[in-house]
Amino acid sequence: MANVLINAPKSVKKGQAFEVKTLILHPMETGFRPGTNGTIIPRNIIEDFVATYNGVELIRLKLSSAIAANPFVAFQVAVTESGTLAFRWTGDEGFAIEQSVAIAVE
Amino acid sequence: MQRRSFLAGTTALVAVLPLASAHATPESLQAAIREVVGSAALREGKVKIDLPALVENGNTVPLGVTVDSPMTATDRVKAIHVFNEKNPQPHVYTATLGPGLARADISTRIKLGDSQKIVVVAETSKGEFWTASADVIVTLAACLEDLT
Predict the structure, then answer these.
(1) Which of A106, B39, B64, B114 has the smallest number of CB atoms closer than 10 Å to its CB?
(2) Do A59 and B106 touch (CB under 8 A)?
């Protein structure tokens, strides 16, 4: 789980917008590049990114090969009660990683 | 003479091969946009794209998309679709925005295979489609070789 970086404030003011930044270590191999032996390197990308707050979906991204390696996603959230911000990345070759952070509302 | 015709033939073959590779084209870009928008009207405006005009390395290009919307329960952006013109596939990403988002403001980093146009389509809860596009010049393209 060390391969995920999440930047979100620990405590926020009620209803005030704050930015959440996420970064995950992943090659995002496009499936269009030839390798050293001339054959195409098989595609290996993260296809879905979902962020939820207390189980309610905030944002869902369907990613393609055109996303840079180590996908970075940042978005703006506003919450009214304390809870858990959870993230889930799923992709090719059974890739699935979950991570969550707690957020306290002052 | 035989040698000459052989050379001419190989040159023609080399010239044809790159064209035959699968690449997104302005036509496939339009088709991908049509697939999302359907028969609804596509209007320019409200969408702001934050993308550098000149990129030195197409492997990692910061892309910010902001849509002018109050983001209330009744009037908000439901989805943001990002397309490109000349990468191998026309799709970049599709974001579905929930009601918990404070602003329609998403930042990512993308790959660009060539100097091209990026098109963003935002779908609102009222069923409207807003669009904007940005041109970008890429010096070193992504997806060319495996450096590892």
Answers:
(1) B39
(2) yes
Q: For the domain covering B25-140, report its CATH number.
A: 2.60.40.2470
Alpha-carbon Rg for chain A in angstroms? 16
pLDDT band at residue B9 under the 50/70/90 scheme: low
H or E element in which residue B36 lies? helix B26-37
Three-state secondary-structure class, residue B113: coil
> Are the beta carbons of A61 and B93 separated by less than 8 Å?
yes
Would the CA dihedral through A53, B82, B124, B31 be positive or negative? negative
Question: Which residue of B lies nearest to A79 if distances are taken between CA atoms?
Answer: B100
pTM for this model (two decimals): 0.83
Tokens encoding B85: 């013109």
Domains of chain A: 4-105 (2.60.40.10)
**Quick check: A58 and B146 CB within 8 A?**
no
Average pLDDT over residues B14-32: 63
The per-residue pLDDT for range B100-137, each reduced to its tens digit, is 899 999 999 999 988 899 999 999 999 899 999 999 99
**A15: which DSSP letter?**
T
CB within 8 Å of chain B, chain A residues 16-55: 17-18, 21, 28, 30, 32-36, 41, 53
CA–CA–CA angle B125, B126, B132 (5° rounding): 80
